[in-house]
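step: validate -> pass
step: tokenize input -> pass
step: predict -> running
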Amino acid sequence: EAPELRLTYSELASYLSCAHSYYLRTRLGFMPSLAPELGYGHAVHHVMRLVAEYTRRHGAPPSPVDLDALMDAEFFLPYANKPAHREMKQRGKSLVASYIRDHADDLRRTWATERPFELHLPGVVISGRADVIYDGSGDRPEQLTLVDYKTSAGDEVDPLQLQIYANAGRREGLPVTAAFVHDLQSTQRQEISLASSDLHAVENTIIGAASNLRSRAFDPDPVSAKCRRCDVRALCRAAVR
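step: predict -> pass
step: emit ->
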């Protein structure tokens, strides 16, 4: 019997997006060049987590002064020079401040941040962490809402991540009733379907991807828009230029 395959959600998403770029990064070890903005999304996510935890601890979101102090202490961009760091820090602070202004009630209902999940399927386990879970009903949750932050989601929102976490949560017995992708840039929030049929389709997608990984299927999937964003396209003969 084949050993159980364990993947993070990020690894799964990378493979599903383009198996060949996944191969170049993870199997051959090609690393993209370091861009100044590398880590910007992680830095914003880190601050958002701290804002949610601050709100849960104090019963109210941080004030503008508190947010300034939090940004000074916790916003890190190791590959940015001082002007770039200053510009991205200001941009990140603006995103976080807008969220605090528009969603203070949500923040007061924080049930968990960076909550780990594992979805166990035949032959494969997918792991990841939900950015924030809202409920507000104390230690015994009644209606959990998963929210995934994007610094900029763009035109397309992939429901896969939250559907995996919702499925895993329900298997734990958690009452996950809703899920949203929140675009911090546009301030738009898109609901993700948690219908049983959709969650079942996701399970089939994961099992199929695991089967392909075991058979070492690393075929490229060249699409112009995707290739333009790919950080290993210079190494790929199939890339659309």
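step: describe -> The longest helix spans residues 82-102.
step: cleanup -> pass
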